[in-house]
């Protein structure tokens, strides 16, 4: 049996029939609907909103949530494969699905009331309402404990003031999950578009995630009814629990980006003739391509085992950190190496490598920088907190 260049250990054979069906469906969507337009979307700094109904119809929004709440009831590995195939197209699309599913629908499901679940989740699963997640602040970055956004109770309402920065989906969102300091610790609130004092500003001039919609959120004494508060959690464990869900998907997504770069570069190396022979026939190219395949295979096995642990309820945050750190580093290194092998042509968006490399500069940064995840593992190993 011949081996696939991007799956040398036949990891696909370890998947269930349902998981393979999910992967194939999303792969077809990526090949037929995403890849023909995504380079131009990146050039034009435009999120392809026209794809949202199709993404929703495939059951990719809130995919792991129960059907009663609009989800598809998929397992963790199936969700990981969704992220992998979407990011094979572009990180912007995977980010959109990750934010909608893990950072917005998940906290409503996990921390909200039955009434809140019924009010928002089904329409979010259908893509009729788009969400964004407001945790990061301009001054805070990797240290959310310095949060300045605050909410004060006024009878049956809350008054929210502050701002959030680098918020994926913000300019297109109908609602925002916003975390704020209160007299009773950090709490989450669902803000809806059009609330007085709630405004959004789109972030321009990005050189990364250009096919994603990013913005800043501003709250000027916004009145929020207590029925919009996520009363099921208090403290930083609320938003951090959401981030663990998102980081799981991010540990799979960059595998797709790396596979896209390897496939493109391998085809180029076979066709490109230099000094009388194909580039692929040189030792230097073969060593680089072999190393890419090694790192992709390692990342696939790491993500799959993390998924099985998550499905068994045994995954630890440190394991999620290790997978996110390893797989993002793997992918960005491969994207840069592929750009080099593509030569001058590699700097254009006619090829995928440069676009993925630029996107991965954000992916390796958000949901915890590489350094943060290294220190999470260091703390687990030594018992000392070096933050």
Automatic annotation (TrEMBL):
Any one GO molecular function term: glutaryl-CoA dehydrogenase activity
InterPro entries: Acyl-CoA_Oxase/DH_mid-dom (IPR006091), Acyl-CoA_Oxase/DH_mid-dom_sf (IPR046373), AcylCo_DH-like_C (IPR036250), AcylCo_DH/oxidase_C (IPR009075), AcylCoA_DH/ox_N (IPR013786), AcylCoA_DH/ox_N_sf (IPR037069), AcylCoA_DH/oxidase_NM_dom_sf (IPR009100), Glutaryl-CoA_DH_mitochondrial (IPR052033)
Highest taxon of source: Bacteria
Alphabetical keyword list: FAD, Flavoprotein, Oxidoreductase, Transit peptide
Residue span, Acyl-CoA oxidase/dehydrogenase middle domain: 132-222
Residues in Acyl-CoA dehydrogenase/oxidase N-terminal domain copies: 16-128
Residue intervals of the Acyl-CoA dehydrogenase/oxidase C-terminal domain: 234-381
Cofactors: FAD
Family: Belongs to the acyl-CoA dehydrogenase family.
Protein name: Acyl-CoA dehydrogenase family protein
UniProt source species: Stenotrophomonas tumulicola
